Amino acid sequence: MQAFGNIEKIVSAGADALMLYFNGKTLDEANGACHRLLNQIDEHIKQGDSTWQWLVECVPSYDSLLIVFDMELIDKHGVYSAIRTLVDERGELNGAHLISETITTIPVWYGAPDASDLSVISEKTSLSVEEIIQLHTSMEYKVYAVGFAPGFAYMGDIPEPLSCARLGTPRKRVPKGAVAIADRQTAVYPSESPGGWHLLGLTPLNMVTHDSNRSTSLLKAGDKVKFVPISEEEFNSYHES
Question: Which residues contact 99 (CB under 8 A, 6 or more apart)?
Fold first, then answer.
């Protein structure tokens, strides 16, 4: 299948899926192109467009989008044609102006005893604890992808001086709500799990909420996130309220 617009490659990902890869001068540009297409598809679904009933799932990542379809309703060439209609003669996505960015503020108790590698990060980066917190809270981060575990959002890019490689040996237990960094990324562990990232502290927010019918992630690909520091008392007040 011939690539077009910001899509540089289209490959089969099994009998019922296509993987689209996006181009850009930077990863952020490629990721933005992915989210613009995803937003266009979402608009058709929200409007109840019956011609898109074949769509089973869209899974965005850093510079790619997995499209899973119902083989009883459409084939790969039909999916290709449907995606092609979302791009105009200039190769631009129709209605790209419709994109909206949600900004979510995440409070963090930096240095919480159960989730603190601040001293280790300080040794590795030559930054003081205060500088680590200042740098981490100085940025507005983009959610590039959600994966690894339900609600685990990969965000970037953290400031270069704060960059810190993953642990040589992952922990067997990282507490729920742990705010962490690895390389140029940051994330929040939505539930207790193993993990190999360096921990900065804890957030009292639930990254995933559950009801009788579904689970909902606080963050989705394309969202913007701002971390803000809170005290131990403020952290505890979230749980008391």
Answer: 35, 36, 39, 222
